[in-house]
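Why does residue order matter? Because the sequence determines the fold. Keep that principle in mind as you read this record.
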Amino acid sequence: MPASQVNFHWLIPVSTLKRRARLKSWLNKIFRTEKTRLFTLDIIFCDDNYLLKINKEYLKKQYYTDTISFSLSKPGEPIVGEIYISYDRIRENARIFKTTYQRELLRVIFHSALHLCGYSDKTASAKKRMSAREDYWLSRYLG
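Structure:
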């Protein structure tokens, strides 16, 4: 099966996304391994205010977040997904968690992809399982 289309979009400049072709291939690998069919994935980089507006409008939440994932597909169909990522939150979280911007950015991208693969982080046990998968994919990618 050919690789699905993964696209990056910048509403603000983010020049620190390294090895984009490899990352696109890796995202396809995540979906295949997690047994989720992917058709297209658009990853949109924005700032806090843009993502807060989306959070309020679509999720009825009144707070900043690092990422929001949307599946635009009908159940049972290959995923057509959108991932919105706040550059501001990634930068701040990297500082808080004492990690690099690049590592935090990859973690959030993989986290968002896992949401589209059906993983949840709404309960403690689900969050633990999802974090383990994030760590798995991140360590293999950076390996």
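The chain has a mean pLDDT of 94.
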